[in-house]
Amino acid sequence: MIVLRRTFALLLCCIFLFGCQQTFRVSERLSGNREAKNRIALMPMDVLLYELTAGSDMVPNAVWTENAKKHLLDGIRSNPAFGNLELVEVPNPPIDSPDAKQLASFMQLHAAVGSAVLAHSYVPAYVLPTKGNKLDWTMGPHARNWRDKVNARYALFLHVEDGYADGGRVALMITAALLFGVAIPGGTQSGFASLVDLETGDVVWFNHIARQTGDLRNGQYAKESVDALFLGFPLGKGCVSC
Amino acid sequence: MRYAAIFLSCLVLCSCTYYSLVEGRAKHTVNDTYVIRTESPWNARSLGSATILSQHGQNLDSLIFFRPTADGEAPLVINTEYGKKMPIFKKGTSFIELPDLMKSSLMAAGYDDVLIQRTENALMDGNKALRVDFTMKMRAGPLLKGFSMMSIKKDTLFTVMFMAEETTYFPMVAKDAESLVASVSLLK
Amino acid sequence: MLKPGRRWGPFAHSLIALTLCACANNSSQFESGLRDATLGAPVLSDDKPASQQAEANSADVVLSAYGISNLKPAERPALESDEGGLWSALEEHERMVSVAGNRITDEALNGYIKDVVCKISGPYCPQIRVYVLRVPDFNANMSPTGKMEVWSGLLLRARNEAEMAAVLGHEFGHFLRRHTIQTQRDSVARGNFLQFAAVALGLAGAPAGSMDMMRLADLAGRMAYSRDHEREADGYGLRVLFDNGYDLTASPALWKRLKEERSKADSPDHFNLFTASHPSIEERAEEQTKLTERLSSRITSPQKGRERYLEHILPHRAGFIEDEIARKPKAAALALLDLLIEDGVRLGELYFYKGEVHRQSADKKGPEEALKWYGKALTSEGAPSKLHKFKALAHLRLEQKAQARTEFETYLQKMPKAPDADLVRSQLEELK
């Protein structure tokens, strides 16, 4: 996962540098009734919050990470886009159990597809001429097994990383700026969300964030990040800008 | 990885070459060597001395045209781990050695569990060729399935290889890849 | 981890190092709180001549220095702690290792290694999860969460259970002492210092190059920290051998052979202050011999566990060797095979692979050399049937068509259903 996480970090950083206007994509193959009470399975979230030290070490922070997961979940539930939807969390089975391996394989496939979407749909140098900005990727017919397993029509995948300068780094940033006029970056918030139709396996909605603002440590500010991440979420009555 | 290192790698990554469109139902020349006829459209980019065609992204499906390999050169030029040199192609190599040459090249490039599923005599532009079907794994990532077509002409080895994620993307793209490979004629 | 390799630096870097199966660790003083303070640092004191210490007393010093009962590994740390953060990240990582493409899933092999791990880890067994991975390098590693990776390169090189247990015991030592979190803390402290030093030097108008010196000093410090951890883990490796009645000479024997393999493979283990995250192999072999001498009198019938080890490893050996040959330079592959041949188990298989290294090499004499080894393999136990195909190929290279034909025919007789049988048949037609 860490290798993948590095891939994601690289791609999201590219997108940040060469930023594009519209962050979300909706597939032409999206079907389903927006009025219906659709069930969405939230796959185990891949979230990491870390402290960025003066020496540029990334120190993971478990409390922040756990809180961020809670805030994300709350934020999704209270998001108007999810108004009439039912969100069920898919739990992470014990490490190395048969269930865990099955889930990890599915997550691995999604990671491959997700990084293809990130790379080829958002990084200008990598955009595929045959697809352009179209969201046109799938997890294949095997996704249907998961529809029965999680008893939901859709699966939602979340990957979020968020770094915060610690006291030392803030001091360094100020010192460097005052004395030398050099800007040392603080943390970056980046991530993506993807919605898969388990009936067809198609990725029907995808969005990403890559920015130097936002705070997932605190519930009040987290809502703003969640709203940014779920921009254009196409299901549910409350869907805006879709 | 240091934060700054991610930032730098990203600058490098972003300065890579762009993909170009390979239109469907048309004739194209790849790598100044292979003339192909497409059914569906593809995306192409060059990577080192090879040209990669893909429909959904290189990590999900890729059809690789390697540059013609002369005596003493490595046929599949990919960076290797462990400082091992890639196996080389020697003048006088018989067809029967090709599956092992391909397998050891892929292993040297870092793929695991490379399994040759089937080998079969075939033709490439009327020349005797060999088709090898295989599966292989990566440390992190889904199982890959693929086939390669190799032919030797005037002591030079020509290799085209297709590989894709096994469960979804191989079944989706293999047919197009097969018809494209069957259409190959050689300029050299 | 055992092998000289990358330093355990910042968190993400370290995790990548783990994933890529590189090696990790380092630190400069042992932190209090992680072990019983009354014991002090687990370093043996050599200031008194051995003659002044009774033999038994000396062994007790070793055993108490590497005491286990007073340690508390694998206890889930508080979420609030830096260690808590490291744990969650490592657990995420482990979920992916469990489906890694190079994981060996064979039940018999996994069961056997897990049994040995349980034996040496005693009460901690239920907290340890073993992952056997195909990686052609001599190594294993363990995280504080209880994830233990065992690499095929280690299984191939160890000659008996005691040798494997010595390495796994070493990793268990890192786990017991929670070295990973100590390393992270050290790295953060050093990184911060360096960054502020940069600003201070800039302020003071220090000449260009002073920062490079600071960086070198920083790196050297990190390496020294790592070496202390490795030495400490070596001590625990020996301790668990002792507790389980294994032959204590296993550990120094393994180190000596590793050194021999490296020097033959043209990659000598240079000692370098700025790059070595591990003590030199010489130093470790020497240190281990010293400790071994103090303890061995206490073991009455030392166990090597060779038979049961070979019974489980041999079925996988050919695959492990193929990985090494495919990924290592010729000299390194030959050095490894020579050491395996010295051990003398199933020589036909080993001679065959020696022939393969020569046949695949770019050397003009390759085919001739290969034929010599294939011949030797055929008169020894365990030569694989596929040898005949490769022997035929070597003959073909030398334009010896008649011999090539015979070998192809033997190959088809022995392996009529080989995936390339049709190909061989058509090759035979051409030869006729």
Note the main attributes of this structure.
heterotrimer, B: 188 residues, alpha+beta, Protein Transport Mog1p, Chain A, eight-stranded antiparallel β-sheet, 20% helix, globular, C: 432 residues, mainly alpha, Serine Threonine Protein Phosphatase 5, Tetratricopeptide repeat, 2 domains, three-stranded mixed β-sheet, 3 strands
Task: Give a description of the structure.
The complex is a heterotrimer of chains A (242), B (188) and C (432). Chain A has 242 residues and is of the alpha/beta class. Chain A has one domain (2-229). Helices cover 38% and strands 21% of the residues of chain A. Chain A is globular, with a radius of gyration of 18 Å. The longest helix of chain B has 14 residues, at 169-182. Chain B has a single domain, classed as Mog1/PsbP, alpha/beta/alpha sandwich (Protein Transport Mog1p, Chain A), CATH 3.40.1000. Chain B has three helices and eleven strands; from the N terminus they run αββββββαββββαβ. In chain B, a hairpin with a 2-residue loop joins β4 (42-47) and β5 (50-54). In chain B, 46% of the residues are buried. In chain B, the strands form two sheets. Chain B has an eight-stranded antiparallel β-sheet, with helices on both faces. In chain B, strands 2-3-11 form a three-stranded antiparallel β-sheet, with helices on one face. Chain B is of the alpha+beta class and 188 residues long. Chain C has two domains: 11-296, no CATH class; 321-431, Serine Threonine Protein Phosphatase 5, Tetratricopeptide repeat, CATH 1.25.40. Chain C has helices at residues 11-19, 55-65, 82-97, 107-121, 152-157, 161-176, 179-203, 210-243, 250-264, 281-296, 306-327, 330-343, 347-360, 366-378, 387-397, 401-414, 421-431; strands at 129-133, 140-142, 147-151. A three-stranded mixed β-sheet of chain C has the order 1-3-2, sandwiched between helices. In chain C, β2 (140-142) and β3 form a beta hairpin. The longest helix of chain C has 34 residues, at 210-243. Chain C starts with 10 loop residues before the first helix and ends with a helix. Residues 1-56, 201-209 and 268-276 of chain C have low confidence and may be disordered. At the A-B interface, α1 and α3 of A face α1 and α3 of B.
